[in-house]
Structure formats: structure tokens, C-alpha cells
UniProtKB/TrEMBL annotation:
Entry keyword set: Golgi apparatus
PANTHER family: UDP-ARABINOPYRANOSE MUTASE 3, UDP-ARABINOSE MUTASE
Source species: Ostreobium quekettii
One Pfam family matching this protein: RGP
Main location: Golgi
Descriptive protein name: UDP-arabinopyranose mutase
Subcellular location: Golgi apparatus
Xref: InterPro entries: RGP_fam
Homology family: Belongs to the RGP family.
Cellular component annotations (GO), alphabetically ordered: cytosol; Golgi apparatus
Sample GO molecular function, one term: UDP-arabinopyranose mutase activity
Biological process terms in GO annotation: UDP-L-arabinose metabolic process
Lineage: Eukaryota, Viridiplantae, Chlorophyta, core chlorophytes, Ulvophyceae
Signal peptide segment: none
Length: 328
């Protein structure tokens, strides 16, 4: 694995609150540059604990930088975080939510206790999307390829995305929240696996890292929040788009470790209002992504995303005019 330093990573946090939760992350993030995207009232001054290198952007900054295109950054929604990787100059991004904390014993991986270090290990070792290794990630210490794994595929491919998981409050949709209000995830699985080529997955943005050089232009958290007919599908949208593009370009996506402790359950009734149309639309959107194809001219994430946008305009605008705006 290549070496890395905390200075190689920008940590992006969307929030409307003071950043007190960073105290829990001090030993992990205090050497990183932190980009805070402040949602909501830009006149409010957020309090940041001493000792952190934090740069705070609010809606006025978004409008100043993007001018008449500022509408493309979601307002009053955590999808505003993608402005953070737009202004970043680092190769690697780690984004997390402000209700996520370090997991304590016994929920600590034996090989690494820092979520950031685990994400970087995932990104800096190859992925294996073309053939599933039943012993999970063969590039972890103490693991390898199992008998019957083709030697021609053992070099793997570059990893573009590291998708971390969560303990405590599950990342459920509103109907499942309502059906299981007291359910908590206590199952810590000490494993990382590559999402197979040709398979989509539901990406969650609360504990996520990626390589801007490989996939950055496509990591757009969809237009949500105030003025939009849908919410809570921003990270899902980015997950569908980036997975299709990773498959096309020959990059990998890993999921599993690291875990964070997700402390708050959002209101299921408020979530249902945000998700309602998405519950129906996803039955059209997922088949679109399962069948979409990109041309040989798509040789990087930017070119692929422009192709994808044109196909969204052609194929999904009939579902709702919202997709015309999203394609734009």
C-alpha cells in the first residue's frame, strides 16, 4: 500500500450546528484540513473547537463562487456537502455527518482503530470487481485470494470509493423506520468487500471516502432540499452514477469497514415527506442505471458524467420534469 498523510485528505462536513462533535474526532482529524459547508442561515456563526484547521463556507460563499449556477448546490439539505469537494484541492475526500462518532470497544477493528486510516487503506489498495473473493478483501493483512481465483485478475483495479458503515441507528428509509422504530445495528462485521461489477448499491454519505482524481466530477449529490420535490436520495443518486462510471472506467468500490457510531435517528414522518416520490421513482431510476451504457469516448469521470446527464434527460424526464432539471 502507498503511504499517505492526514494532510493529503480534505474532510468535508455539512452542518447547521456548532462543531462540538469534533472533540470526539480530535485524535483522528486534527491534522486534516476540514471543509465545513454550513447549511441554513448564513448569518449564524458556527463555533468550532480550538485546534482544528476548519474552513467554513455558507450559502453566500456558494453564490459568490458559482454565481448564476449556485442553484445546483442543494439548499437546506446535507447534499450541500458536494460544494466542499468542488473547492477542495486535495486528492482524497472523507465526508461524514455531524451525528457520527468514533465507535468504542468492542467495536474497533483489530488492524486499525481510525476510520480515516481504514478508508485510506481501502482507497490505496486494489479492488476486485471482476471476480468475487469469498474471503472478502484479499489485500487486507492476513488475507489473500482463495483457491480458484484466476491469477490473471489478482492485480485488481484502482479503488475509487470507500463506503463505510455505521453502528447504532440504521440508515433506513421512512417506511422501515416506522415499522422498526427501536431497531439498532449492533452487528460489527470485521470485513471489507468489493461491490461486484454490474451491481448497483445504496450509497450512504454519512461515512464515505473517495479519490477525487478518479471519480470526483461524478460524485455529485443530487439536487434536493428546499424547492425540490424530493429529499434523502442525494447520496443514492451519486452512488448509482459513480458505480456505473466506475464499472465503465475499470475502477472499484469497496464497502464495509470502517464503521462510525450513528447517534441520532431522524424523524420518520419528516423523512416520509421527503422520500415519498423517490419511493416510486426509484423503481424507474434503478432499471435505468442497470441498463445504461456509456461510449468508448467516455475515458474519464467528467466525460462519462456528461454522457450520463444526456441520457437522464432523454430517458428519465418522462418520469417527472425534476429529472430535466437534474440533468441540467
Amino acid at each position: 500500500m502507498s503511504t499517505w498523510e492526514p494532510e493529503d485528505v480534505d474532510v468535508v462536513i455539512p452542518t447547521i450546528r456548532n462543531l462540538d462533535f469534533l472533540e470526539n474526532w480530535r485524535g483522528v482529524l486534527e491534522r486534516c484540513h476540514i471543509i465545513v459547508v454550513q447549511d441554513g442561515d448564513p448569518g449564524r456563526r458556527l463555533q468550532v473547537p480550538d485546534g482544528f484547521d476548519c474552513q467554513v463556507f455558507n450559502r453566500r460563499d456558494i453564490e459568490r463562487v458559482l454565481a448564476d449556477r449556485a442553484w445546483c448546490i442543494s439548499y437546506r439539505d446535507s447534499a450541500c456537502r458536494c460544494f466542499g469537494w468542488l473547492v477542495s484541492r486535495k486528492r482524497y475526500i472523507y465526508t461524514l455527518d455531524d451525528d457520527c462518532f468514533l465507535p468504542g470497544p468492542p467495536h474497533v477493528s483489530k488492524d486499525v482503530s481510525s476510520p480515516l486510516a481504514r478508508h485510506m487503506s481501502n482507497l490505496l489498495t486494489p479492488a476486485t470487481p471482476h471476480y468475487f473473493n469469498t474471503l472478502y478483501d484479499p489485500f487486507r493483512d492476513g488475507a489473500d485470494f482463495v483457491r480458484g481465483y484466476p491469477f490473471s485478475l489478482r492485480d485488481g483495479v484502482p479503488t475509487a470509493i470507500s463506503h463505510g458503515l455505521w453502528l447504532n441507528v440504521p440508515d433506513y428509509d421512512a417506511p422501515t423506520q416506522l415499522a422498526k422504530p427501536l431497531e439498532r445495528n449492533r452487528r460489527y462485521v470485521d470485513a471489507v468487500m468489493t461491490v461486484p461489477r454490474g451491481s448497483l448499491f445504496p450509497m450512504c454519505g454519512m461515512n464515505l471516502a473517495f479519490d477525487r482524481q478518479l471519480i470526483g466530477p461524478a460524485m455529485y449529490f443530487g439536487l434536493m432540499g428546499e424547492g425540490q420535490p424530493i429529499g434523502r436520495y442525494d447520496d443514492m443518486w451519486a452512488g448509482w452514477c459513480t458505480k456505473v462510471i466506475c464499472d465503465h472506467l475499470g475502477y472499484g468500490v469497496k464497502t464495509g469497514l470502517p464503521y462510525v457510531w450513528h447517534s441520532k435517528a431522524s424523524n420518520p414522518y419528516a423523512n416520509l415527506k421527503k422520500e415519498y416520490k423517490g419511493v416510486f421513482w426509484q423503481e424507474k431510476v434503478v432499471p435505468f442505471f442497470e441498463n445504461v451504457s456509456l461510449t468508448k469516448g467516455g475515458t474519464d469521470a467528467q466525460a462519462c458524467y456528461l454522457e450520463l446527464a444526456a441520457q437522464v434527460r432523454t430517458s428519465l424526464a418522462c418520469v417527472d420534469p425534476y429529472f430535466q432539471k437534474l440533468a441540467e
